[in-house]
């Protein structure tokens, strides 16, 4: 249920199970992780087919979790996929059109940039049927929107429209065509995009992060200077 397409330095990874609102089975989670791991393009665009982004975990798979060991393994599987998205060298853009629910929200939270269409809606409905998002949602949601909004969203299970998601910081833009944002990012210097993502994602202590930030900047600056010097020599020779 995962399809990939590469165009103009952007790899599109699309969930293609529209009849189930792109709900993810364990096998689909593995396919998704592999599609992200295989990417060597500077930008990955994650989207869903049909009228939904992703409804989260397939409820039939959840219904089969009848012992703690299997349930824990299922949660860890989803966490690994989210971590794969988060740690990918490529910048990952979530293009959210239609419903994002539960695990769909959690996968979007792992992306570097979340862009919604006006038709997008968001919810963490687990509490309404005795569960909660365990693909890293309780970790990333407060990091992204702050503790107050995270408590409201996760404890109520209510649905947010695109404008409310934008206000909360759950998405950074509401646009008619989210792919255009991925294309915009891919138009920047690829090495710089990768370096900036790595630095912003670094969770080491502040001093270490600042030192590594300086190292990454120096590497890019030297590379850029070398390119400019080569261009200058080429002009002189001509």
Summary of the model, kept short:
Pfam families: ECH_1. With 238 residues, this protein is of the alpha/beta class.
Characterization of this structure:
This protein is an alpha/beta fold. It has two domains: 2-186, 2-enoyl-CoA Hydratase, Chain A, domain 1, CATH 3.90.226.10; 202-237. It is built from ten helices and ten strands. The protein has helices spanning 26-37, 59-63, 68-87, 103-110, 137-145, 147-156, 162-168, 179-186, 190-201, 206-237, and strands spanning 2-7, 10-15, 43-48, 52-54, 91-96, 99-101, 113-116, 121-123, 160-161, 173-174. The strands form two sheets. Strands 1-2-3-5-7-10 form a six-stranded mixed sheet, with helices on both faces. The chain has a four-stranded mixed sheet with strand order 4-6-8-9. Helix 1 packs parallel to helix 3 (68-87) and helix 4 (103-110) crosses helix 5 (137-145). It comes from Natronoarchaeum mannanilyticum. Residues 201-214, 221-238 have a biased composition (Basic and acidic residues). Residues 201-238 are annotated as: Disordered. Belongs to the enoyl-CoA hydratase/isomerase family.
